[in-house]
Amino acid sequence: MRLTIIGTGYVGLVTGACFAEVGHRVICVDNDAAKVRVLQQGGIPIYEPGLAELVQQNVAADRLRFTTSTAEGVENSDVVFIAVPTPPLPDGSVDLSFIEKVAREIAAAMTSYKIVVDKSTVPVQTGDKVAETIKRYCKARVDFDVVSNPEFLREGFAVEDLLKPDRIVIGVRSQRPVPAMKEIYAPFNAPIIVTDINSAELIKHASNSFLALKISYINAISVLCEATGANVQEVANGMGMDERIGRRFLNASLGFGGSCFPKDLSAFIKIAEQVGYNFGLLKEVQTINAEQMNRFVKKIIDTLWVLKDKRIGVLGLAFKQNTDDVRTSPAVELCRRLQKEGALLRVHDPKAMEKARDVLANVEFVPDMNAVADGCDALVVATEWEEFKKLDLERARKALSHPILFDGRNLFDPAEMERLGFIYKSIGR
Ligand code: UGA
Q1: What is the pLDDT of residue 306?
Q2: Which of 161, 216, 233, 320 to mutate to test the pocket of ligand 1 (most atoms within 8 A of CB)?
Q3: Looking at residues 309-321, what average pLDDT do you find?
Q4: Which end of the chain has a smaller Cβ tally under 10 Å, C or N?
């Protein structure tokens, strides 16, 4: 099918590349001319495993191209996806101005029937607003349908998640766009659920909030584990074997971050408030998440006492593994908190150091993870990168003034660390 994706951020670019990979002809539009130039020249502005290869192959096969012109995209496709940012406003609600602007641009460019699909995460009832806007600004007076098709991609695993989805959600206001939407997704062999448009929009916020709740739940359990000498990983394993609960997203940590969960939680709380419901449960999820970071910082201070002028090595800057994204990263937040206490930081991340330079000042970026501990008083693991499990622990132990390791991601085995001579403090164990 002929598809256009407006917005080449994480979602738009991965979606465009994967649609092209399964045989559709895709135009990716972005109003950032510099970014489009990079993409046209074969560059990829973000790190996402497997994405660069996918983009290169599909550009070469002439199934994927990039432009700054919305009109060009709309003219040359049957289905137009909106994948632009929906950033938070200071009060926690969602800034929908990018969505509104794109809806007007699409409307102005339409000369025949189009299906306009919203992929960005938006508050319930946004689809109706988009439809109203298109109707108002479409001079050609042609038919169109607005569809909600939320994405469930995890950064760092986005290509994998898109090519092998658990489910496809299609929210519609009429049945007319359903066959085309099913055809787009047929190559992915995933269950497709067709709902009304408001339900589809709610599915997205409800899913992300539930996953955040799951993490805060296990983080709350981790506090009980620390107080009682239990092990949160064993508790999670035991709970997770119940299929009704499931083991995924039960990894205790120094808290969740990223560009989705914190923003979507605030938005969902606000949306609930606007329809007269106090979503206290989700407010508690936020509180537990904030406290988890406080507790981790306190653990470091309680152990090292005064942090002023102490040298601390931090492994991880990205908000999670497999990404260079540092937006709302707990690792960056931790660095700032340690700096506020006067600590001097040596930091490393396998992919996120470049982006971290924009958000972290006065830290020493160390290219080799095994050299981070050199001359430090303690080492901290802040992101769950798999490769940190291969850290040369013997070298780190010798390099530290005293072998203290704080693990905010439970990457190592406490008994083994003790055997190696470390004072090892993790989460809920
Ligand atoms: C999340 C959802 O998982 C995706 O399904 C959704 O499409 C996406 O938001 C979005 O709305 O765009 P993402 O933010 O990329 O994906 O990352 P996650 O893998 O969900 O991790 C979020 C945070 O939770 C990270 O900071 C991670 O370290 C933390 N986390 C995750 C934990 O602390 N414990 C866990 O068990 C799992």
Answers
A1: 97
A2: 320
A3: 98
A4: N
* C-alpha of residue 410 to centroid of ligand 1, in Å: 17
Q: Which helix (H) or strand (E) holds 219?
A: helix 197-228
Mean pLDDT of the region 236-264? 97
The whole-angstrom separation of Cα 140 and Cα 127 is 21
Task: Report residue 32 CA to chain centroid gap.
Answer: 21
List Cβ neighbours of 232 (8 Å cut-off, separation of 6 or more).
Answer: 218, 221, 222, 225, 252, 410, 427, 428, 429
Cα 383 to ligand 1 centroid, rounded to whole Å: 12
Torsion, Cα of 192, 197, 202, 204 (10° steps) = 50
The rounded Å distance from CA 205 to ligand 1 centre is 13
By three-state DSSP, how is residue 26 classified? strand
Atom of ligand 1 nearest to the CA of 248: 36
* pTM (two decimals): 0.96
- pLDDT mean over 14-27: 98
**Which protein residue has the closest C-alpha to ligand 1 atom 36?**
249
Count CA within 13 A, CB hemisphere, residue 386.
3
How many CA atoms are closer than 13 Å to the CA of 50, on its beta-carbon side? 14
Q: Which of 47, 84, 249 to mutate to test the pocket of ligand 1 (most atoms within 8 A of CB)?
A: 249
Structure tokens at 164: 């092998």
pLDDT tens-digit profile of 176-207?
Answer: 999 999 999 999 999 999 999 999 999 999 99
Determine the length of the chain.
429
**Minimal CA–CA distance to 172: which of 150, 196, 149, 203?**
196
Residues designated catalytic: 260
Q: Which pLDDT score is estimated for 124?
A: 97
What is the C-alpha separation between 89 and 75, in angstroms, rounded?
33
What average pLDDT score do residues 72-95 get?
A: 96
DSSP letters for 76-130: T-SEEEE----PBPTTS-B--HHHHHHHHHHHHH--S-EEEEE-S---TTHHHHH
pLDDT of residue 376: 98
Tens digit of each residue's pLDDT (9 = 90 or more) over 35-64: 999 999 999 999 999 999 999 999 999 999
The secondary element (H helix, E strand) that includes residue 144 is strand 144-148
- Residues above pLDDT 90, as percent of the chain: 100
The pLDDT, as a whole number, for residue 393 is: 98
